[in-house]
Structure formats: structure tokens, C-alpha cells
Amino acid sequence: MPRFEKIEYKPIPVRELLLDMKNLSELMIDLAYSSALFNDKELAEDVLELEIRVDTLAYLLEIETMIAARDAEDAEALTGVSTVASAADKISDAAADIAAIVTQNIGVHPIVSEIFEKVEERLMRVKVGDESILVEKQIGELDLVARMGVDIIAVRRNKDWMINPKENEQIRCGDIIIARGAPSGVKEFKELAGGKRQKLED
Amino acid sequence: MAQSHQKRFEEIVERFVELKDTSELMIDLAYSSLLLNSKELAEEVQKLEEYVDKLHTDFELLVLSSKFKKEEARGFLGLIRLGVATEKIADAAAEIAEVVLREIEPHPVLKLTIEEAEETVTYVRVAEYSSLVNKTLREARIPEETGMWVLAIRKRDKCIRPKPDSKIEVGDILIASGYAEGEEDLKKLASP
Q: Which among A134, A150, B51, B53 counts the fewest CB atoms within 10 Å?
């Protein structure tokens, strides 16, 4: 049985809520596909957690749009906002459905993952170890795109997600990084995060 | 036997990748249509939605007609569910585009939300004498030359999500976004 917790109302601008919903739902698609194709349970569980967050945002946004409508004309213009919000919510639901293939132990046929790996860019999830040279470096100074064709799309620190982290964000030990890139870059980056490789090559 | 099995899997993956790419292209185009209040782009999304329905059916038939063993059933169920979820994503994109197809101006907050998106979207047809013909997107260096970013390539009745090694052919229509200054440069490049 799902547990519903009471959501505390707090005034957040509609724009901010919608932007978070849009970004999270798009991130979830990437994460969900890679959890299914690489049979990664932890990643799938992250997706399910993000889905709960999107639901909360959708609930808050619904309250905000209702408060914002002063008359019929306002209300009509705002229906567009709720349509887009509900579409983002639907996208996040679809991502959760994909993640559930993994958490419910259904899985995707292994040969498909094998072939898929050849045709797609891949996503990875790595934990930054205490030996890693990435610790205390700013994301911007690493210049990962130019160096190894790897792009950091999200960082999870404790319970918080940073989506598209800023250039001056410092990497900390224990951070979970979600990145995308070509297979060779992905391998190199994993070694850097794990502390197996101690030098950034140009 | 084993080889034909392998081939069948490759075919399933190929269909799935197309389904996935198309649904993601639809999300990009749907948000762009909203930003630009462009009916043309929104209609493109609706057309793609019909195409996805067809792709999805083909994909399901292909999966179901594979002669799989009993112990493989779970893996095949996973494939079917993956397809259903992808189709759902495409539906959601179509709903976003529908906002534009209603007769009212979208709420300004929507425009503010899609802030990273670019100024304008343009369509250009690649002419016979264009230097782009037979080049891959990587070789064409369109963003470097014009500042425009190719969102999609329409080839005959098919709309594809561009990849670095997608080949540009005569008659292709490039759908690109960027600042207004780049539009002229792209037109010159595509149909000199």
C-alpha cells in the first residue's frame, strides 16, 4: 500500500515548480532507461524516489495555479500551465514504470542490453571515493567534456539532488555522480571517481 | 540458428532505439513549440505521435513473434513494458504540444520555464548544390558555422533525431533553433 504523507503548503513560484518538474522528469527518463538496460537496482530506486518528489511538486503547483486565477480569463490561460505540469508528471510516471521493471525483478532480456550498449551513449552512476583526486575540485575546472567527452548531469549528496550542477560546485567525497558519455570516457571517469586513476590526462 | 536469433535481437533493439529517439525528439519539439508559440512545430509533434503509435505496434509484434523459451519470458515482458512506457512519454509530449494548438496564447510563465531554449526555430531544405550534401552532421559543423542547433531532420515522411553520424541528403529538411542572425547563415548553407 502506498503511504501518503501530508504535504505542507509553502508558497513557491509557479515558474520554479514547473521548471523543477520539467528538469526532473527529463533526468528521470535518462536514469530510468539506463537502470533498465544495465539492470541497476540502486539507480532504479533513485528514479522511484524522484517520482515521489515530482508528485509533491505537482501537488504544490496545482495549489499555486488555483490561487493565481482571479477570473475566467486567468483560469483559461492557466489551464495550459496545468496541462504541461501534468504532462511532466506523466513523463515521470513513465520513467518510474521503466524503473519498476528492474525493482520488480522482471528485467530486460540480457542480449538486448548487450546490443544496446553498442549503439547508445552510456549513462553511469559513480560514487566518489575518499582516495579520488576529484574530491574538492570544482566541476568546471575538471573540463570533462573536452578531456574525455563526459558530461555530469546530476549529483546526489545525501538526500539532495543537484540537477545540472554549476561550474563552481565542489565535488565531495561520498557524492553520487550521474554522467553521460562515450564508453571510453565513461571508463576513465569511473576510475577517477573510484581512486584507481590518480591523474587527469589532457 | 543462433545467428538468426542474434539478428532478431538486433532488429528488436533497432526498433526500440527508434521508438526511444522519436519520443525524446517529441519532448524537445513540444517544449520548443510552446516557447515559440509555433503551431507548425506543435503539428509536427502530433504527426510524430501517430508515427510512434505505428512504431510501437511494430515493436510489440516483433517482440511477440520471437520464438522465445519459457525461461526468457520475463526478459521479453520487460521489453514489452519498456515499449509501453516509451509510448506514454510520446503521449505526454503530444499533450504539451496541444496547449499551442488551442486558440489562446500560452501563459507567459511557460515561456519563462523553458528558459534555456533558443530564440527562433527555422526549417530549411537542403538543395542539390549545398555543401552539406552527403556530409554527416559531425562533418557539417552547423553549430560552429551558423550558431544554429539542429533539432530534427525530416527525410521524406520520417522525422529523425539527429546523431553525429546522421547523413545529410538532398531534399532533407533541417529543423533548427538558434538566434535570428544564424537563420540567414543556415539558409545560405543549405540552399546556396
A: B53
